[in-house]
Design brief:
With 141 residues, the chain is mainly alpha-helical. It contains four helices and two strands, in the order H-H-H-H-E-E. A two-stranded antiparallel ribbon has the order 1-2.
Length: 141
Amino acid sequence: MRVPALQSSKGFTLIELILVIAIIGIMSALIVAAVINAATDTRKVLARQQQTVVQEALNSWISSSSSGSNSLSNARWLYTNAANRFTLITNYLDPATIAQFVDNTTNSAHPQTDAMIKTGQHLEFGDWPTTTDYPKVNMTP
């Protein structure tokens, strides 16, 4: 008596195909989430760098305004009484940075760039403390 030989399968079963497609779908969802998080993190880093640039420009303006025959109290008076504190430092920023702020700021009291808008943040020029510290440029949501 002859026993029929088992037929070898030449393809994938439906369950195997569904399992592979599910695994590919899960992996692609994880990759998309990672890319989106990376873009958000990049915007936050860029916004923080722009805040640092504005703080350095403010420090340069204070140094310049309080040097020579001018005093630190004169610079403090100018800063405290300025209607728009951002305009005080425009000479200490490069044109591309100024353009970023001018193009994206809707409220002159809260300058912002595209990166800050996308992260829901803006800059605020803090009051000049009564101590010897310089005023701080704060990033606020």
